[in-house]
Protein backbone atom coordinates (compact mmCIF):
# COMPACT_ATOMS: atom_id res chain seq x y z
CA UNK A 1 0.00 0.00 0.00
CA UNK A 2 1.45 3.39 -0.92
CA UNK A 3 2.48 5.71 1.86
CA UNK A 4 0.27 8.82 1.68
CA UNK A 5 1.62 11.89 3.38
CA UNK A 6 -0.74 14.08 5.41
CA UNK A 7 -0.23 17.08 3.08
CA UNK A 8 -1.07 15.00 -0.05
CA UNK A 9 -4.14 13.59 1.67
CA UNK A 10 -5.40 17.10 2.55
CA UNK A 11 -4.76 18.32 -1.01
CA UNK A 12 -6.71 15.42 -2.49
CA UNK A 13 -9.55 15.93 -0.02
CA UNK A 14 -9.80 19.64 -0.84
CA UNK A 15 -10.00 18.82 -4.55
CA UNK A 16 -12.74 16.28 -3.88
CA UNK A 17 -14.74 18.85 -1.91
CA UNK A 18 -14.48 21.38 -4.75
CA UNK A 19 -15.56 18.80 -7.33
CA UNK A 20 -18.49 17.50 -5.31
CA UNK A 21 -19.75 20.97 -4.44
CA UNK A 22 -19.86 22.01 -8.10
CA UNK A 23 -23.20 21.46 -9.80
CA UNK A 24 -23.00 18.51 -12.19
CA UNK A 25 -24.70 20.49 -14.93
CA UNK A 26 -22.20 23.32 -14.45
CA UNK A 27 -20.03 22.21 -17.36
CA UNK A 28 -21.87 24.52 -19.74
CA UNK A 29 -23.30 26.84 -17.11
CA UNK A 30 -26.06 25.61 -14.83
CA UNK A 31 -29.42 27.24 -15.60
CA UNK A 32 -30.18 27.35 -11.88
CA UNK A 33 -27.40 29.91 -11.50
CA UNK A 34 -27.27 31.59 -14.91
CA UNK A 35 -31.10 31.73 -15.08
CA UNK A 36 -30.78 31.12 -18.82
CA UNK A 37 -32.58 28.21 -20.45
CA UNK A 38 -31.82 26.25 -23.61
CA UNK A 39 -34.22 28.00 -25.98
CA UNK A 40 -32.56 30.08 -28.69
CA UNK A 41 -33.28 33.75 -29.31
CA UNK A 42 -35.42 34.59 -32.32
CA UNK A 43 -33.51 35.76 -35.39
CA UNK A 44 -33.70 39.60 -35.29
CA UNK A 45 -34.59 39.77 -38.99
CA UNK A 46 -37.75 37.72 -38.32
CA UNK A 47 -39.17 40.23 -35.84
CA UNK A 48 -40.90 43.60 -36.24
CA UNK A 49 -42.89 45.51 -33.66
CA UNK A 50 -45.96 47.50 -34.70
CA UNK A 51 -47.70 49.22 -31.80
CA UNK A 52 -48.71 46.60 -29.27
CA UNK A 53 -48.05 43.71 -31.66
CA UNK A 54 -44.98 41.68 -32.43
CA UNK A 55 -45.04 40.46 -36.02
CA UNK A 56 -42.93 37.41 -36.72
CA UNK A 57 -42.11 36.39 -40.26
CA UNK A 58 -42.18 32.60 -39.91
CA UNK A 59 -40.30 32.14 -43.19
CA UNK A 60 -37.28 33.84 -41.56
CA UNK A 61 -37.23 31.78 -38.38
CA UNK A 62 -36.61 28.08 -39.13
CA UNK A 63 -37.09 27.07 -35.50
CA UNK A 64 -40.73 28.18 -35.69
CA UNK A 65 -41.41 26.71 -39.10
CA UNK A 66 -41.46 23.16 -37.77
CA UNK A 67 -43.84 21.68 -35.20
CA UNK A 68 -41.95 21.19 -31.94
CA UNK A 69 -39.71 24.21 -32.39
CA UNK A 70 -39.50 27.16 -30.04
CA UNK A 71 -37.72 30.49 -29.66
CA UNK A 72 -37.57 33.17 -27.04
CA UNK A 73 -37.74 36.93 -27.32
CA UNK A 74 -36.08 39.01 -24.65
CA UNK A 75 -35.16 42.44 -25.90
CA UNK A 76 -36.26 46.07 -25.78
CA UNK A 77 -39.70 45.11 -27.17
CA UNK A 78 -40.31 42.49 -24.48
CA UNK A 79 -37.89 43.09 -21.60
CA UNK A 80 -39.61 40.53 -19.39
CA UNK A 81 -39.28 37.91 -22.13
CA UNK A 82 -41.67 35.53 -23.86
CA UNK A 83 -41.34 32.02 -25.24
CA UNK A 84 -43.06 30.98 -28.48
CA UNK A 85 -43.69 27.30 -29.12
CA UNK A 86 -44.95 25.78 -32.37
CA UNK A 87 -47.09 23.09 -30.76
CA UNK A 88 -49.18 21.80 -33.68
CA UNK A 89 -49.65 22.55 -37.36
CA UNK A 90 -50.56 26.26 -37.49
CA UNK A 91 -50.82 26.42 -33.68
CA UNK A 92 -48.49 28.46 -31.49
CA UNK A 93 -48.46 28.93 -27.73
CA UNK A 94 -46.90 32.03 -26.25
CA UNK A 95 -46.11 32.46 -22.56
CA UNK A 96 -43.94 34.57 -20.31
CA UNK A 97 -40.35 33.36 -20.32
CA UNK A 98 -39.49 33.41 -16.63
CA UNK A 99 -40.45 30.75 -14.14
CA UNK A 100 -42.57 32.28 -11.39
CA UNK A 101 -40.48 30.61 -8.69
CA UNK A 102 -37.17 32.44 -9.04
CA UNK A 103 -37.12 33.76 -12.58
CA UNK A 104 -35.14 31.09 -14.42
CA UNK A 105 -36.12 30.79 -18.09
CA UNK A 106 -38.57 28.11 -19.12
CA UNK A 107 -38.13 25.86 -22.18
CA UNK A 108 -40.70 24.12 -24.33
CA UNK A 109 -40.94 20.35 -23.90
CA UNK A 110 -42.66 19.14 -27.06
CA UNK A 111 -42.75 15.49 -26.05
CA UNK A 112 -44.91 16.30 -23.03
CA UNK A 113 -46.48 19.44 -24.53
CA UNK A 114 -45.63 21.72 -21.63
CA UNK A 115 -43.28 24.46 -20.50
CA UNK A 116 -40.55 23.47 -18.09
CA UNK A 117 -38.25 25.58 -15.94
CA UNK A 118 -34.61 25.03 -16.90
CA UNK A 119 -33.48 25.09 -13.28
CA UNK A 120 -33.03 22.16 -10.95
CA UNK A 121 -36.37 23.16 -9.41
CA UNK A 122 -37.99 21.90 -12.63
CA UNK A 123 -41.34 23.60 -12.25
CA UNK A 124 -43.62 22.63 -15.11
CA UNK A 125 -46.56 24.41 -16.67
CA UNK A 126 -49.33 23.49 -19.07
CA UNK A 127 -49.42 25.20 -22.45
CA UNK A 128 -52.00 27.50 -20.84
CA UNK A 129 -49.37 28.50 -18.30
CA UNK A 130 -50.97 26.70 -15.35
CA UNK A 131 -48.72 25.08 -12.76
CA UNK A 132 -48.37 21.30 -12.94
CA UNK A 133 -45.59 20.59 -10.44
CA UNK A 134 -42.48 22.09 -8.89
CA UNK A 135 -41.72 25.02 -6.64
CA UNK A 136 -43.51 27.69 -8.68
CA UNK A 137 -46.98 28.50 -7.38
CA UNK A 138 -48.06 31.17 -9.86
CA UNK A 139 -48.89 30.55 -13.52
CA UNK A 140 -47.02 31.86 -16.54
CA UNK A 141 -48.67 34.75 -18.35
CA UNK A 142 -50.22 33.80 -21.69
CA UNK A 143 -50.28 35.98 -24.80
CA UNK A 144 -52.86 36.07 -27.59
CA UNK A 145 -51.61 35.32 -31.07
CA UNK A 146 -52.94 34.76 -34.57
CA UNK A 147 -51.43 33.46 -37.79
CA UNK A 148 -52.04 34.98 -41.19
CA UNK A 149 -50.05 33.54 -44.03
CA UNK A 150 -46.43 33.54 -42.94
CA UNK A 151 -46.92 36.05 -40.16
CA UNK A 152 -47.48 35.26 -36.50
CA UNK A 153 -48.91 38.29 -34.67
CA UNK A 154 -48.57 38.42 -30.89
CA UNK A 155 -50.36 41.00 -28.77
CA UNK A 156 -48.03 42.24 -26.04
S1 LIG B 1 -36.81 29.04 -10.81
FE1 LIG B 1 -38.09 27.59 -11.75
S2 LIG B 1 -38.38 26.07 -10.23
FE2 LIG B 1 -37.11 27.54 -9.28
Search tags:
single chain; 156 residues; alpha+beta; Rieske Iron-sulfur Protein; 4-stranded antiparallel beta sheet; 12 strands; binds FE2/S2 (inorganic) cluster
Structure, explained:
The protein is α+β, with helices and mostly antiparallel strands and 156 residues long. The chain has a single domain, classed as Rieske Iron-sulfur Protein. It has three helices and twelve strands. The strands form three sheets. A four-stranded antiparallel sheet has the order 1-2-12-11, with no helix packed on it. It has a four-stranded antiparallel sheet with strand order 3-4-5-10. A four-stranded antiparallel sheet has the order 6-7-8-9, with no helix packed on it. A hairpin with an 8-residue loop joins β3 and β4. The radius of gyration is 21 Å and the shape is globular. Residues 13-24 have low confidence and may be disordered. FE2/S2 (inorganic) cluster is lined by residues 99, 101-102, 104, 117, 119, 121, 123, 134-136.
